[in-house]
Amino acid sequence: MNRIGCTLLMIFAFVVFVNAQNSTFKITTWNTEWLSCSINGPTDEQLQVNNVAKVIKALDVDVVALQEVGTSSTYSTIDTLVRRLGSEWGGSIIPWSADNCNQNQGIIYKKSKVQFVSASLMSNAGTSYNWSSGRFPVLYNLNLVVGNSTVPVALINIHAKAMSDESSYARRKAAALSLKALLDGNSYNTKNVILLGDFNDYLTGTQCRSCSPAESPYKNFVDDTQNYKGLTGGLYDPNYNSPVIDNIIISDELFDNYSNAVLRETTAAQVVPNFTSTTSDHYPISATFSFGDGPTGCQNFSFSETFGQSLGAFTQQSVQGTQTWGWRAQYGAVISGYQNSVANPNEDWLVSPALDLSGSSSATLHFEHALNYAGTMGDNMNNYSLWITDGYSSGLPSTANWTKLTIPTMPAGNNWTFVNSGDITIPTDLMKQNIRFAFKYQSNETVAATWEVRNITVDGKCNQTQSDPPLLETQSKVYAAGGIIKIENKQAMPVSVFDITGRILYSVPAIQNTEFDVMQQGIYIVRCGNKVVKVVVD
Fold first, then answer.
1. Backbone φ and ψ of 221, nearest 5°
2. Do both 404 and 447 map to the same domain?
3. Is residue 5 part of a domain?
């Protein structure tokens, strides 16, 4: 590297420094080629699952999104992998169809660095046909543990339609358009989104040789550089003489956290013999992210439920009437008091699982809902309502004191059009443990509407404003000249320089001025006292 020609981009991340190693995360996607299916892919399933576990350990990943994973009551692959890896690991899988030879998407993660929040099938991300006749993306809501705080991440694991013909290409493109429209909407447009998986096509160009123009079916993501970044567009697969088809895309909220390190993990073939015949025809693809530690005790929170496959962890409580909350594919949670051509009196509650908002200083809730065969708008506000409490555990809702929340946007009440509720602020006095919210439905002998609810999201934010330490530049000046990082302390403080893995490179006791010779391009973390600045050297 020509040090004289180096440029320095200063990215000031003012955080409390706890442990640089814990702030770095390696996130991987890997198609494991018909894992658990003996009639396709590698034939020795026990050897294959053992090899997959060996590779995951050897690559030292924190989260790995897996594709082509079978599951059934007789052979649960994710559970088997967790047992092979050990008690410090966790896993989850959301099957669109439970069978050893169905291609589902799962995850494996280190429990010390990742908190599992929820998982759901994103059946609202387009048509079943475009997602390979039902193989929808799977949303994994995770919290990355960064020191004493957490960073919520929406990890979306996809396995797009395969094959290089024009019809398959058109299905991939249509699926990508639907997915981006969903991610651009209110439910996701402020989230830390990592979209990864087997895209079955390139981010630059396409494997469809007869398609004209020969554009990536994911061009809509690639071209939107303000909101998304394709990390893997420059990776090449020499086995197929083409760009890779396993890709990673991130939202703009993570641009500054991406460590400019993405890798096709060819070392996997060194971990197990005969890798491509015994383990997989895909190599893992990894990207590295770094996060600064937030104020002690400050926790971001994220919860979501699409109702894409069931009512999930929500519970139905009936106060009056025989009609109850149920579930329908594409429509989510559904209730109607109308049955056999008769409007029936009902009161039914759909109650959320317990949420822990104690680490948040503010939180908002929003969802999508549709309403048909309803009465006046005033009736609608009363009969189809949202409530919240910190005192409920089980049984009838009357066992707790509930607070009614205003739903900003109600459906018209005379059609099946879903509308977004708008942001609903959760009262600050309910930033506690054991918070539950509930949808309350009422009908009578005159009006018995149908109410449909889906795509619920709760976002809790920690308020760092009051607890943030003074900005580093008020005490120190950090800059580079000729490949040397120079630190000028206005106050004499200990200085340390770390690489992106947390390895200490340089350390001096309390001193006013010092410098460090940069040996290579990359990200460096400079600590002055208890304040840090992240420095990217290109």
1. -75, -45
2. yes
3. no
Number of domains in the chain: 3
Residue carrying the six token digits 């600590």? 527
C-alpha R_g of the chain:
26
Q: What is the pLDDT along the chain (538 residues), one digit of tens a residue?
A: 222 223 333 333 333 333 334 478 999 999 999 999 989 999 999 999 999 999 999 999 999 999 999 987 667 789 999 999 999 999 999 887 788 898 999 999 999 999 998 899 999 999 999 999 999 999 999 999 887 778 999 999 999 999 999 999 999 999 999 999 999 998 898 899 999 999 999 999 999 999 999 999 999 999 999 999 999 998 888 888 899 999 999 999 999 889 878 889 988 998 999 999 999 999 999 999 988 644 334 456 778 888 877 888 899 999 999 999 999 988 999 999 999 999 999 999 999 998 888 778 889 999 999 999 997 766 667 899 999 999 998 889 999 999 999 999 999 999 999 999 998 999 988 988 789 999 999 999 999 999 999 999 898 876 544 333 333 444 457 766 656 777 776 566 677 777 665 566 666 666 667 777 766 666 777 777 656 676 766 5
CA distance 303 to 120: 11
Are 60 and 139 part of one and the same domain?
Answer: yes
Residues 6+ apart with CB under 8 A from 146: 22, 23, 291, 292, 293, 294
The count of residues in the chain is 538
Separation between Cα atoms, residue 44 and residue 35, nearest integer Å: 10
| Amino acid, single-letter form, for residue 469 | P
Domain span at 409 = 304-461
How far, in Å, are 33, 102, 156, 278, 473 from residue 42 at the CA level? 8, 15, 26, 5, 57
Answer whether residue 499 is part of any domain: yes
Q: Record the tokens describing residue 239, joined without a space.
A: 């086995």
Q: Which residues contact 170 (CB under 8 A, 6 or more apart)?
A: none
Rounded Cα gap, residues 110 and 30, in angstroms: 16
Domain match, 91 and 204 both: yes
What the block records as the tokens of 413 is 């009440």
- Given 254, 269, 294, the domain boundary residue is 294
Element (H, E) at 59: helix 45-59
Q: Is residue 137 part of a domain?
A: yes
Which of 246, 274, 294 is the C-terminal boundary of a domain?
294
Q: Is the dihedral of CA 161, 166, 169, 175 positive or negative?
A: negative
- Say if residue 453 is in the same domain as residue 482: no
Residues 207 and 280 in one domain: yes
Task: Kindly report the CATH number assigned to the domain that includes residue 478.
Answer: 2.60.40.3080
The Cα 139–Cα 282 span in angstroms is: 22
Whether 296 and 148 have beta carbons less than 8 Å apart is answered as yes
Q: Measured between alpha carbons, how far is 309 from 322 in angstroms, rounded to an integer?
A: 23
Q: 513 in a domain, yes or no?
A: yes
- pTM here is 0.58
Closest CA to 464 of 300, 274, 318: 300
